[in-house]
């Protein structure tokens, strides 16, 4: 399970006295623990991936503000956090791969622009954790014309 890998990596980082890596992994592990406490169940890998995605999204947003403020220290911290978290995600799909999947779904389902919700419902499980979800809606609109 991904949860155990993250915990072992945090412990390894503590032993190596890598404070920056420990803080990033500790944040993710605390989110995992909060999920388990709130839901009173072991966390499935899909939800661990969602937590990591959420952390990456927040880091990217903070990185944008740091770049605007020209804060070199925050920029370095953000880039490091992205380097730490990204390897835990599944292999990412390319835009071409997702585009091909969307075209196949639209063709097989005979979907039109009115069926946007159905298309999204069909594609989301296929790309979960493997592609930036915010890019899918514009891609669908482009394909449908």
Automatic annotation (TrEMBL):
It holds the Pfam family YqeY. SUPFAM superfamilies: GatB/YqeY motif (SSF89095). Gene3D superfamilies: 1.10.10.410, Uncharacterised protein YqeY/AIM41 PF09424, N-terminal domain. It comes from the Bacteria. PANTHER family: ALTERED INHERITANCE OF MITOCHONDRIA PROTEIN 41, MITOCHONDRIAL. This is GatB/YqeY domain-containing protein. It comes from Clostridium saudiense.
């Amino acid at each position: 399970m991904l949860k155990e890998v993250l915990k072992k990596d945090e412990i390894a980082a503590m032993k190596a006295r890598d404070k920056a890596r420990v803080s990033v992994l500790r944040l993710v592990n605390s989110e995992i623990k909060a999920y388990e406490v709130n839901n009173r169940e072991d966390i499935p890998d899909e939800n661990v991936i969602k937590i990591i995605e959420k952390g990456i999204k927040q880091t990217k947003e903070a990185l944008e503000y740091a770049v605007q403020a020209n804060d070199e220290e925050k920029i370095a911290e953000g880039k490091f956090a992205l380097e730490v978290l990204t390897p835990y995600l599944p292999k990412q799909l390319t835009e071409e791969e997702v585009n091909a999947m969307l075209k196949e779904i639209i063709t097989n389902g005979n979907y039109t622009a009115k069926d946007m919700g159905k298309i999204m419902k069909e594609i989301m499980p296929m790309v979960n954790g493997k592609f930036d979800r915010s890019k899918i809606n514009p891609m669908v609109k482009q394909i449908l014309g």
